[in-house]
Design a protein that fits this description.
Elements: H1 2-12, H2 21-41, H3 44-64, H4 67-79, E1 86-89, E2 96-101, E3 105-106, E4 113-123, E5 126-136, E6 142-144
Antiparallel strand pairs: 1-2, 2-4, 3-4, 4-5, 5-6
């Protein structure tokens, strides 16, 4: 039952048009964390712990990225070589990011071109890691899922 509640929350939160960058990041991080927790622990507790940790990290990374960082992230999705890290330091905040995009694929249900990426960040001196997926919208822009 806990699985179903968690999954419902993960799928319903992004549908809210009022979602902030942090909330969007939290959803992606929680989903990735839940999958990793389940793969490692094979039980509900591990899944919930993974979702909580992933959600927290996703929220932090999503909330801290400003326009410059989002442009750099978009560039990594657009032109980044698969499995090759690209990194930058935000000149205003000093936050550091490293993105490793995976090969592009077509989402079978939406037919959008998508890419998954690992995002490592050092924000206020604290290292964090999350995973995100971005898909092209009808205008060719990458949108975080």
């Amino acid at each position: 039952m806990k699985h179903l509640s968690l999954l419902a929350l993960l799928f319903l939160l992004p549908l809210c048009s009022c979602a902030t960058k942090g909330q969007t990041g939290a959803v992606g991080g929680a989903a990735a964390g839940a999958l990793i927790g389940q793969a490692i622990g094979h039980n509900t507790s591990a899944t919930l712990i993974g979702a909580a940790v992933g959600g927290m990290l996703g929220y932090i990374v999503g909330n801290e990225m400003d326009k410059y960082d989002r442009e750099q992230l978009n560039h990594a999705y657009e032109r980044g070589i698969s499995n090759q890290r690209s990194s930058w330091v935000n000149p205003d905040t000093g936050n550091q990011y490293a993105v490793t995009p995976q090969p592009a694929y077509q989402n079978p249900s939406t037919h959008q071109v998508c890419r998954r990426a690992e995002i490592e960040a050092i924000i206020d001196g604290k290292p964090q890691r999350t995973y995100s997926t971005a898909c092209r919208d009808q205008y060719g822009s990458w949108q975080l899922q």
